[in-house]
């Protein structure tokens, strides 16, 4: 297990490093922060002074080495816009994003998985077909279209809920629904497929032939084995919580991390964008690591086979 964890941590570290290297290069090749932050009419002396202040006049390789040195000291840089540490700006926005993403994740898990399992246990029924149709609608409609439709129906036409902002729990309902509906559809469809595949396995038929009650077969044999691929999908959803909030927070003017990404990229606020990408990449690799550990708990065969690799 120690060797397995060491390998996974090493791969996770390399993944984060590759993401940060790619972001570092692309951000500096996509536009000059001095021109964007100072404006097109800024004098050349001011632009040169700005570049010298932030080390943008150094060769790219020297900027990259300086950036790696900062990361080793846990220094995530300073915002070019207001001079605050980038990590402080990110952490200030995290609670607002979690206020949307965590309830949305709970809705995905509490509705999507039970709906998919129920549909698999009642295959070819009206309920099964209803789950299939609803799940297809959920994961095919883009989040920005869904968000605008929800605003049009519930905020403009019915005037039941506010269209945007952050001023109480009512403002969070439409963003949470927008974030969760697609994931509910994906989880329902995936859970149904995984459960149907498991129910067709020989060990399920053997358990039935032994005269075990159907409920025991489902809970003790089918669900644990169907949970292994489902955990993979859930882990991906957990890791992409922050990234998935970018569009939704922009639509509903929600002051979270997703909106900060849009503003920082538009202004080429390099330190803030790099810090945000580091947080997103780290959350995704940590989620994948937790998924790998969950495999061993759900399926002892996987746990016993790992040391052999």
Can you put this structure into words, describing what you see?
- The protein is mostly helical and 309 residues long.
- The protein has a single domain, classed as MetI-like fold.
- The protein has 14 helices and no strands.
- It has helices spanning 2-29, 33-38, 44-53, 60-72, 86-121, 126-140, 143-157, 170-199, 202-209, 214-239, 241-251, 257-266, 270-298, 300-305.
- The protein is flat and about 85 Å long.
Task: Characterize this entry briefly.
The chain is mainly alpha-helical and 309 residues long.
Strand elements, count: 0
Summed up, the domain count is: 1
- CATH C-level class: Mainly Alpha
* CA gyration radius, whole angstroms: 24 Å
CATH architecture assignment name: Orthogonal Bundle
Class from secondary-structure proportions: mainly alpha
Could you give the order of the helices and strands? HHHHHHHHHHHHHH
The CATH homology group name: MetI-like
Give the count of helical stretches: 14
Give the topology.
Blueprint: H1 2-29, H2 33-38, H3 44-53, H4 60-72, H5 86-121, H6 126-140, H7 143-157, H8 170-199, H9 202-209, H10 214-239, H11 241-251, H12 257-266, H13 270-298, H14 300-305
Descriptors for this entry?
single chain; 309 residues; mainly alpha; MetI-like fold; 14 helices; flat; disordered C terminus; BPD_transp_1_N; transmembrane; transmembrane helix; membrane
């Amino acid at each position: 297990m120690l060797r397995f964890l060491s390998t996974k941590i090493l791969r996770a570290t390399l993944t984060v490093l590759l993401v940060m290297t790619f972001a570092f290069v692309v951000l500096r090749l996509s536009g000059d922060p001095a021109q964007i932050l100072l404006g097109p009419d800024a004098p050349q002396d001011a632009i040169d002074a700005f570049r010298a202040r932030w080390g943008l006049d150094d060769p790219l390789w020297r900027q990259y080495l300086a950036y790696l040195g900062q990361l080793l000291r846990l220094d995530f840089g300073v915002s070019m816009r207001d001079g605050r540490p980038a990590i402080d700006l990110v952490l200030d926005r995290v609670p607002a994003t979690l206020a949307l993403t965590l309830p949305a994740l709970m809705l995905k898990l509490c509705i999507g998985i039970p709906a998919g399992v129920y549909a698999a246990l009642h295959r070819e029924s009206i309920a099964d077909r209803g789950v299939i149709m609803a799940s297809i609608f959920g994961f095919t409609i883009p989040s920005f279209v869904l968000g605008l439709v929800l605003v049009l129906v519930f905020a403009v036409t019915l005037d039941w809920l506010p269209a945007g902002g952050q001023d109480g729990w009512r403002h969070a309902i439409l963003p949470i629904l927008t974030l969760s509906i697609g994931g509910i559809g994906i989880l329902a469809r995936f859970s149904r497929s995984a459960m149907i595949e498991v129910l067709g396995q020989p060990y399920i038929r053997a358990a039935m032939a032994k005269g075990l009650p159907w409920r025991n077969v489902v809970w003790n044999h089918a669900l644990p084995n169907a949970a292994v691929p489902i955990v993979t999908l859930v882990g991906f959803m957990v890791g992409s919580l922050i990234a998935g909030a970018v569009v939704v927070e922009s639509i509903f003017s929600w002051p979270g991390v997703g909106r900060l990404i849009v503003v920082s990229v538009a202004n080429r606020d390099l330190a803030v964008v790099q810090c945000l990408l580091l947080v997103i990449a780290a959350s995704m690799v940590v989620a994948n690591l937790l998924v790998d550990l969950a495999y061993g708990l759900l399926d002892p065969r996987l746990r016993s086979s790992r040391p052999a690799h």
